[in-house]
Predict the 3D structure of the following.
Amino acid sequence: MDLTASQQRMLAGRHGEVPQRMLRLLVHLGRLYGASRMIPVSSVQVSGVSYKSIADPGLHFLEDLSARGARVVVPAYSNPAGMDVTAWRELGFPEAFAVRQLRILRALEALGVNLSLTCTPYLAGLVPGRGDHIAWSESSAVCFANSVLGARTNREGGPSALAAAICGVTPEYGLHTERGRYPETVVEVQCELGDATDFGTLGYAVGRASKGHVLYFRGISHAGQDELKMLGAALAASGAVSLFHVEGVTPEAALVPVPRTAAMTITQRALQDTKALLNARAGRVEAVILGCPHASLEEVERAVLCVRGRRLRRLLWISTSRAVRSLAEARGLVREIEAAGGRVLADTCAVVAPIEEMGFRAVGVNSAKCAHYLPGFCRQQVVYEGMESLIEDSLQ
Ligand code: F3S
């Protein structure tokens, strides 16, 4: 691999032991994927923040890095933690979990990582431009950054993202290259898509059959930010997809060569079957958890319209970033959700919070990604439905 003089010095240990180790990791990764050089990144998004995901080995790894004086050299934002950092006690998060989670956050802060604690950094002030090279790691954020913003990132693991943040570079391969962004599979959409949950169902159906391909969708006439966010999260969850193009909608769709024939057609029947699959372990809903990926301000507003002047008869949590929660608070939206008996949580989400330890058994969700992970990772029975229908069904 061609390394610049400064990168060679880093690899020789002249910038310290941690940058040396981290660059070694990136060089190894680059060689595996055939990269011929390193490219600078303008931002990093680091996953592996919840104590539930990384446990003691991850905690000790981060504490060790920070004790050795490592620092990030580019803006680096963090993925959700396992709890709301300010309201964990009143929300009933276990003390032992919280103590370890706070140690992880202290270590990340010492490394210089911004404690944004969100999988939607693009709604919290980190918006890369089209063509920008970045190193992000949370799968839905990666899909959104590539597809909707036109930035360029592979799906990094937690350690490789942190390495990119400490070295300021990433190996050039895959979705960083022009060719790597060409669509491999065309999907013909022949079904009605209503709300964002339908886009999640579509993404889940397509992802299951496309296994990491770059996709090109035809037949989606309209899609806003929330719909594309849900589509990408589901594609990434069921099919490890990191980039999709939507004809007439996403920024690179008109610039890439498109295969002539559609490899996949999604009909109304396929959408119904996928929804039934995600509801296969449905039970009686005991709580509703929304905000996967983290809710936008518009989604919080939609929830408020459902509960305004009413009372909930079961628990409602809406997960979002602290940045969006602050905006929602300033507009009085948090107060309205709380007046109905719900909560707007910052910093965490249903999947990375220890909800199974907190007594949750059966939850209603509007996200295909959440419906995918909750049964296995969090031992939950799941009802998968649209936001309005879940809330309506939870009112007194
Ligand atoms: Fe984000 Fe958690 Fe869903 S990290 S995409 S809200 S599983």
Q: What stands out?
A: The CA atoms of residues 313 and 396 lie 5 Å apart. The chain has 15 helices and 14 strands.
